[in-house]
Amino acid sequence: MSHKTSSFDDFFKNNHFSKDENYLFSACTIYNFKGEMVRGYAADLCSFEDDGSYLISDTSGDLIYKDKFNRPIWTLKNIYAHHGIQKDSNGDYLIISSDIQDVYGHKSRFDLFYRIARNDGKILAEYSLFKNFNQISDNDKPSRQDILPQNWFTDLKVPYEITHTNSFYQVDKPQNNPDQILQQYDFIINFQAKSIGKILVLDGENFTLKQKMRPYPYFIHDVQALENGSLLYLNNSPDSEVMRGEDILRLRTRTTGSSRVETMSLSSGVVQNYFDSNEPAPFLMHVAGSIQRFDDGTILTTDTSNKTSNFVFINKEQKVLKRIDITKYCPNGIGFVKLANLSQFLKNNIGL
Fold first, then answer.
1. Is the pLDDT reported for residue 192 higher than 80?
2. In Å, what is the CA distance from 253 to each residue of 140, 172, 245, 249, 286?
3. Cα separation of 187 and 203, whole Å?
4. pLDDT of 130-146, one tens digit each?
5. Residue 234 CB partners (closer than 8 Å, separation 6+)
6. Could you give the number of structural domains in the chain?
7. Same domain for 67 and 107?
8. Domain of 86: which CATH number?
């Protein structure tokens, strides 16, 4: 963009957004830019449509698509979505779910990825980390060292998490990259694990593995493609190179410090700071988080420093354009936030 974004009003002007039509949503709650809750739905994750219909990941463990009157249109049993619901180029859903398998006598969780048709709930494609474990890890099955220790997440019971995926996107724009690793319509997956975490690229046509790499730094979230073929992601803890159980517990109690937004070349692995400033970033996410990049370079992310919950808009020079405090609604922190035009959804859906 040719116009510098130095204020929140500039952000809307430079990206051709309307404050009256756009809202922020996290999980299944919609907020305005004053940090006021506009509407909420009783589910763990939601994706909203202009006609008033919406998809929910229900607390029962099912995926349910509802009409504008909140009546179920279709249901997929035992598919529980986590870490956000994205869409592909056709408007169908990209779902991260889980598969429970027995490994060395322990019930162990691996992630499953689905493309699901919006209109009828048909599963269009599926990719299993368990079934493809030999491809993603270069071993025929998890080693005993791959099994996560019992103190991995102290608030989780069995089964163990062998893979923990936090992002699943389709490349939505043509790629201007000389190495040709990423192509438009490919899919990008980022999963963490004790010793086998990787970024995967799936072919956009047949949903098969095209590329894999072990990221550095390791503890990252919300990996997505830039137009130049590099990856954009949230680095939760730049001072922690290895993700171990004790690191997770330490990070969850941290209240000050800084996370980072970074880019990484798929071909060379070179990591760079996304922002033009090398000062510590004005936000901290402990063990979760998301980023959304806009045409003018502005980043929308989340901040849970000092035991608060905030949405934060940061321009390319790393100046905070807007900080929106929703701690009263989310006293225990937030996982992600996205900006979207939800005016038609709010108009057409009758609410609860």
1. no
2. 37, 36, 13, 7, 8
3. 7
4. 888 878 876 655 565 55
5. 220, 221, 222, 259, 260, 261, 285, 289, 290, 291, 301
6. 2
7. no
8. 2.120.10
